[in-house]
Design a protein that fits this description.
This protein has about 375 residues and is α+β, with helices and mostly antiparallel strands. It has two domains: about 1-120, Phosphorylase Kinase, domain 1 (2-Layer Sandwich), CATH 3.30.200; about 130-360, Alpha-Beta Complex (Aminoglycoside 3'-phosphotransferase, Chain: A, domain 2). The protein is built from eleven helices and eleven strands. It is globular. The N and C termini lie far apart (about 70 Å).
Length: about 375
């Protein structure tokens, strides 16, 4: 509430503006039924917004904290911000080795607050989006966070999909091939310049498709920036399950390895690499983390370079899509945007895909 003065000089209370994308009154009614231990009214604090899902921390009258997630206000594609998918994953993983926030309730009805949303418990800790947050941890805490990040991924890939009720979470075959064809199609409709290495990696990835792949839960965007790190170092909760599906575990692993940039590595020379969390002291090397995952999971990782190439290829296609939206004006003013940097990133990622493919043994 905002305190003001009325015409007689006495203080009056004016309701604070509602948080964007939230009908406070309707949400409080929904809480009364679905999360009855909460004590309205709530104080809303925006944690994340913009083009991402809107994420609010709610503090109730008793000091309890909750988190509400809903799609962004604009440009919502049918499958891009799937709150139901994210809720199903978090709810299914409640009693597993994979740490996730407490799942408290899901509202599929857009009439309540404009879009489907869900509520989870608040988990203390920091999210290592960049080296800025990482430097709040000690080198020893960073080491622990890195090791447990790979341990949790191995545990995720060891979960019995049927036992947790996620057999319907995605198709059961063809994960990598679908991804390759999907992202290449996006590249072809959005490309602003030819990238020969990307074209070549597309052909070679299809030629070298793995004959057999396991079916596990695949997070799809697994990295430090999508986890909460506890104050002592271990991973406290894995977040952002909106593109999770059933897929090849090594694709998830290679995606994480491609974000695991240490000083002196090839990716460390890219323009934005200095801000990546793993550039700080304390983290183990990518080779050490790969070995740790292999031991914990018991999985053969000898052909991981194929999946590394796949993820570099995918990243190049995604960056091309972002660049295309900037060039079309869809993302607003570009005067402070390094468009040449985007173009370099597409070429660099494509070249790294080729390099990874070249390192595979001949078959």
């Amino acid at each position: 509430m905002i305190t003001a003065m009325d015409t007689n000089g006495a203080p009056s209370l004016t309701p604070a503006p509602e948080p964007a994308g939230v009908s406070v009154r309707n949400v409080e009614r929904w809480f009364a039924t679905e999360v009855p231990h909460a004590v309205p009214p709530f104080v809303f604090e925006l944690i994340a917004g913009g083009h991402s899902n809107l994420t609010y921390r709610l503090t109730d009258a008793a000091g309890q904290q909750f988190v509400l997630r809903r799609p962004p206000l604009n440009s919502v594609l049918a499958t891009a911000h799937d709150m139901g998918r994210e809720w199903r994953a978090i709810h299914a993983l409640q009693d597993t080795l994979v740490p996730v926030p407490p799942a408290l309730g899901f509202c599929p009805d857009p009439e309540v607050s404009g879009q489907p949303f869900y509520v989870m418990g608040f988990v203390e800790g920091c999210v290592q989006h960049s080296i800025t947050q990482t430097l709040t941890l000690t080198p020893e805490q960073r080491r622990i966070s890195g090791e447990t990040l790979f341990d949790v991924l191995a545990d995720l890939h060891g979960i019995d999909v049927e036992a947790v009720g996620l057999l319907g979470h995605g198709p059961h075959t063809g994960y990598v091939e679908r991804q390759i064809r999907r992202w290449y199609k996006q590249y072809t409709v959005s490309k602003s310049q030819d990238t020969p290495d990307l074209e070549s990696s597309y052909v070679r990835l299809l030629e070298r498709l793995p004959e057999h792949s396991e079916l596990t839960i695949a997070h799809g965007d697994y990295r430090l920036g999508n986890c909460i790190t506890s104050p002592t170092g271990p991973i406290a909760a894995v977040l952002d399950w909106e593109i999770s599906t059933l897929g090849d575990p090594l694709a998830d692993l290679a995606y994480l390895l491609n974000t695991w940039v240490r000083p002196g590595s090839v990716i460390a020379t890219m323009s934005d690499a200095a801000m990546l969390p793993t550039m700080a002291d304390g983290f183990g090397s990518a080779e050490e983390m790969l070995h740790r995952y292999a031991v914990r999971s018991g999985r053969d990782v000898s052909h991981i370079e194929y999946y590394v190439a796949f993820n570099h290829f995918k990243s190049a296609c995604i960056v091309q899509g972002v660049l295309s939206r900037y060039l079309s004006g869809a993302l607003g003013d570009t005067s402070n945007v390094d468009l040449d940097g985007f173009a370099r990133a597409i070429a660099d990622r494509s070249a790294m895909a080729i390099e990874a493919l070249d390192s595979l043994p001949l078959t």
